[in-house]
Amino acid sequence: MGKPVPVLSRPERRPPPAPVAVDDPVLEVNDYEDALIGLLFRVEHLRDGIFANLTNGRPAGAVALSGELLDHVARFADEHCELATEAEMAEPAARAGAFREFIAPLRTNPQPTLQQVCVCLTALHEAVFAAFVAFTNRFPTSRSGWGWVEVAAIFTVEFKRSIDEALEMRDS
Amino acid sequence: MPVERAMQLLRDGIAAARAGDIGSARNALTQAVSIDRTLEKGWLWLAGVTSDPAQAIAHLEQVLKLNPGNATAKSLIEHLQSRLPVDRFFCPLCLARAAERFTTCANCRAVLDLARPDLALAANPPDLDKVREGAARLATIVREQPDYFAHYYLGMAHLNLGRLPEAVAQFRAAHRLRPNDATFAAQLAGLEDALADAAPPTQRIDLHSQVPKPAIKPHDPRPSIIVVDDSPTVRRLVALTMQKKGYRVIEAADGDEALEQIHADGPPDLVLLDAFALGPNGPTLCERFRCNPSTARVSIILMSGRDGQFDRTRGKTAGPNRYLPKPFAPAALVNMVRECCPAGVK
Questions:
Q1: Shortest CA distance to A137 belongs to which of A95, A90, A81?
Q2: What is the pLDDT of residues B1-24, one digit of tens each?
Q3: DSSP states of chain A as a string?
Q4: Which of A58, A106, B93, B291 is buried deepest, with most CB atoms within 10 A?
């Protein structure tokens, strides 16, 4: 049997996982939050790299990093959202699929236009946001996830702002 | 003659209106009153063939200017005003108006109801610029004419901006003005618990305190870190990581802001500096710290996304104590900070 396919990578429907019962292992909040922080450090670094590439006239580099960014998010979902229901992961999986449709033709294009890359990044933003909402739902209470919610919101706003600035770059 | 022309257009317009041809009537009557603005009858009939209530009221007000005693115009105005949509509700942050009550503003996307603080992520992220402007305006109101709503909505502005300590301070002030609001008191208690969970045991919130405590005490015994990075995400991640380990974290977007903080609060125990987000200023800021007697002995960790040999060398010649290439795992950050500045040792 080969390597398991990541949750967000599979376009087809997965068989439903076992329902979460009251005696399932308790989510260790601190460990989970630390893992999310580690993920966010990495995707923030990639976000910075994506827009540095765009600013320096390297759209192909931006495309490559955007694919890598979603791979990190998908890997996290595989590792930490095994017990998530199909309904919880439906939206993130759909958004991830939409992003992959946008990025597929760009990967083979050595000179994608800024407009094409920005459309791709908008799809990435939506996929990441949907995944973050699913990750947030894994916290047992709103209060326990507050720190993560705050910093994830900052990241998604900055990501959106960067896309808007890149589009202004195209128009100027 | 223009007057005769206006009268002819008036007759045509009235005839068209009686015949049900509203479009032709409107055209003719509009031309008539533009030629002769004293045509009281023209304005009255024009109001009658105008579909927009606000525009019709404007025409009837022209009638009243010409003849203040025109009872028909007065009654029509009253009737039309009752049909105007009334935007009675507005967002206290961005001042956008709406006809229906709302808890999330469609314009600035701020959440305005403390019952759902987690909506900040579940809904679209707010427009931070608009929320900041609203917070600045409300801060002025709080200083000059404080009342319950000013404190409450300034607290909500801080909450939407992710500033939990500042939000709690404003909600406490609001609670003192409405001590009998049990629902609000329970919501405030929930936020205070969240804030207390982020603080070390020696900094637990005193729920019975009558005086609002500032988010950072002047003589905070925790070792302090200034994180200087143009990315608000990185700053918040560092703060989230290190606050849990017993450190006080101050965020600065650039060198100037960092130096302002140092002048205001005194030198920190450690500086986490993003070397290249500041362009060539990273190492230069490092050198400035080393040359200044009050900051010469402050530990400096230089963060950078470029991991080439040149960058390490350049970073080391500027005088940092340690070098931490991005992206780094939270554990690596914690370990390096503890080596430079153990928690509990100021």
A1: A81
A2: 678 888 999 999 999 988 888 888
A3: --PPPPGGG--SPPPPPPPP-TTSPPP-HHHHHHHHHHHHHHHHHHHHHHHHHHHTT-HHHHHHHHHHHHHHHHHHHHHH-TT--HHHHHHHHHHHHHHHHHHHHHHT-SS--HHHHHHHHHHHHHHHHHHHHHHHTTSSSTTTTHHHHHHHHHHHHHHHHHHHHHHHHHH-
A4: B93
A29 in reach of chain B (CB within 8 A): no
Q: Any CB–CB contact under 8 A between A142 and chain B?
A: yes
The reply to whether residue B240 touches residue A149, judged by beta carbons under 8 angstroms, is no
The number of beta carbons lying within 10 Å of the beta carbon of residue B92 is 19
Residue B29: in which H helix or E strand, if any?
helix B22-35
Task: Report chain A residues whose CB lies below 8 A from the CB of B193.
Answer: 143
pLDDT of A156 over the 90 cut: yes
Name chain A contacts of B197, Cβ cutoff 8 Å. Answer: 143
The answer to whether A150 faces chain B, any CB pair under 8 Å, is yes
Instruction: Answer yes or no: is pLDDT of B212 > 70.
Output: no
pLDDT at B250 (0 to 100)? 92
Residue B89: phi and psi, rounded to 5, are -110, 145
Task: Please report the pLDDT score of residue B214 as a whole number.
Answer: 42
Q: Is residue B145 classed exposed, middle or buried when 0-12, 13-18 and 19+ CB atoms within 10 A define those classes?
A: exposed
What is the Cα–Cα distance from A131 to A77, expressed in whole angstroms? 8
Report residue B34 as tokens: 């533009």
Contacts of B242 in chain A (CB under 8 A): none
ipTM: 0.81
pLDDT at B84: 62
Shortest Cα distance, chain B CAs vs residue A85, angstroms: 18
Q: What are the structure tokens assigned to B304, written together?
A: 């950078």
Interface test with A, best of B159, B240, B249 (most A CBs within 10 A): B240
Please tell me the predicted confidence (pLDDT) of residue A7.
54
**pLDDT of A22 strictly over 70:** no
Residue B283's pLDDT is what?
55
Asked if B186 contacts B160 with a C-beta cutoff of 8 angstroms, the reply is no
Give Dmax (Cα) for chain A: 58
Which residue on chain B is closest to A160 by alpha carbon?
Answer: B125
| Count of all residues that appear for chain A in the document | 172
Question: Looking at the predicted structure, is the pLDDT value of residue B100 above 80?
Answer: no
pLDDT value at residue B197: 65
Interface of B with A (CB under 8 A): 117-118, 120-122, 125-126, 128, 162, 164, 190, 193-194, 197-198, 231-234, 236-237, 240-241, 244, 305, 326-330
Q: What is the mean pLDDT of chain B?
A: 78
Q: Which residue of B has its CA nearest to A148?
A: B240
Residue A69 has pLDDT above 60, yes or no: yes
CB under 8 Å to B295, separation ≥6 — which residues?
B262, B267, B271, B289
